Amino acid sequence: MSRVIGLYHSGPSGYVPLSIDGLVKRYPGSSRNAVDGLSLEVSVGEIFGLLGPNGAGKTTTISVAVTRTRPTAGTVRLAGTDVAAQAARARRRLGVVTQANTLDRSLSVWENLYFHCRYFGLSRREARRHSDELLERFGLAERRDERVDRLSGGLAQRAQLARALAHKPSVLFLDEPTASLDPQSRLALWDHVRGLRERDGVAVLLTTHSMEEADRLCDRVAIMDHGRVLACDTPGALKRNLTATTTVRLRLQAPPPPALLDQVRALRGVERVVNDGNRIEVVTAARDGLVPHLVSAVGAGLLDLSVSEPTLESVFISLTGRKLRD
What we know:
- The protein has helices spanning 58-65, 87-91, 109-119, 124-137, 153-165, 183-199, 211-217, 235-241, 258-265, 290-298, 312-320; strands spanning 18-25, 35-42, 47-51, 73-78, 81-82, 94-98, 171-175, 203-207, 220-225, 228-233, 246-252, 270-276, 279-284, 302-308.
- By secondary structure, the protein is α/β, with parallel strands linked by helices.
- The protein has a six-stranded mixed sheet, with helices on both faces.
- The radius of gyration is 24 Å and the shape is elongated.
- The model is unreliable at 1-6 and 8-12 (pLDDT under 50).
């Protein structure tokens, strides 16, 4: 099996918190693999994004890694522990935050943390102290005695993140954690996730449909489709090195004549031209030197011009031919 460049990224000591090697999962009755030979590693303190449309295999990969589903073939190791062979031991090394609120709604915020600590073997004294520390760290101290079903979505996600870290896991899985949050709560959660790198050294595997989230939060991202990784690198490198497109939008005084559209299409580097009334959208793989030629071709009829740089969304489209949510 060929391996995608950039998937392997272990630290200088060789210790790898999360290692996935040749993972295959096929569900009974299915004619194809949900995950088809996936291999990747996530390093200490790394925030690693797993991107792909619905059905790409992201959720199945997470399900195997957190011991909810057994693999058909291949191995997943958490801090060196095979999750299939030693599931109970592996669960002590992982934390999970999902989009859905999985807190115990009959308990207060503090009780959710305290009983989680006790479940993982902390003494009563240690559990009380650690729960108090987590409340302070995640800005929940004033809500300690409040039932979690009365929390806003953003506060509930903070409480879930605090609980997921209560037993000091090696790997934290974030499965669409901000999908239902308002922009302010989303930014606040991003700050807390970034803080894991400096304070905890936790390896983070994030699945998301938000390209902005992946671009701003992740150290590396892997783009999946049909159970396989198509590309893996830093967001910046993916945008630079793959055939991501730049879009130049021009607004004109009047609808352009066919001859002008033909002239624009003939310019070097132009891949596609879309005309909508008095607007032209020019798609190009590289815009170096193109904008001056466009301005010259349009002449005095140009009212406005804007350039949209390559995004992870355009990288994904160039690799798969479809949008992330398709």
